[in-house]
Amino acid sequence: MYKHILVATDGSELSNQAVEYAVALAKAVNARITAIGVSTRDSGPADRATKHLEIAKDIAAACRVSCDGLHIEHAQPYQAIIDAANARKCDLIVMASHGRRGVAAIVLGSETVKVLTHSSIPVLVVRPKQSPLAFLKGS
Q1: Angle (nearest 5°) at CA 125 between 30 and 84
Q2: For the chain (length 139 residues), average pLDDT per consecutive 10?
Q3: How far apart are the first and last CA of the chain?
Q4: What was the pLDDT predicted at 17?
Q5: Domain of 21, in residue numbers
Q6: Least C-beta-crowded within 10 Å: which of 65, 93, 110, 137?
């Protein structure tokens, strides 16, 4: 199954749910994780991205899943995610999606949609819902 999962995080509650999902999946299939945070020049200081990656690493550590953190500054976050997944030989990308539809989706754009469109690596999209880590409590 999967050996190396890349999970994108921006520190939002929804992206933390994606991290939890990726960790639960990695635990189930004995895979490792790379958490990636991508910032642009306009997205704020890099220390914020570092904090988000630490949260992801803490979630993974609590479940005894190996997790590396990777921060990249790039003008096109979706491309940075795809490039990192390819460079690290990941076999799955996990990302969150707010599920916007219609004009909001067109106007706002979506890094998740761009990754889905351009990636040759499978992409698992996590929607808002209950934490998948509940089943790991007994592990």
Answers
A1: 65
A2: 96 93 97 95 79 96 97 95 98 86 54 94 87 58
A3: 20
A4: 93
A5: 4-132
A6: 137
* Integer Cα distance of 135 and 79 in angstroms: 33
Predicted pLDDT of residue 107: 45
Considering the domain boundaries, does residue 138 fall inside one? no
- What is d(CA 71, CA 39) in angstroms, rounded to the nearest whole number? 8
What φ, ψ does residue 127 adopt, rounded to 5°? -100, 160
Distance CA 49, CA 30 (A): 26
Tokens of 44: 């704020």
60 with 97: CB under 8 angstroms? Answer: no
CA distance 137 to 20: 13
Structure tokens that stand for 4 in this block: 């190396």
DSSP element (H, E) containing 4 = strand 4-8
**pTM, 2 dp:** 0.86
- CB-facing half-sphere around the CA of 34: CA atoms within 13 A: 23
State how many domains the chain has: 1
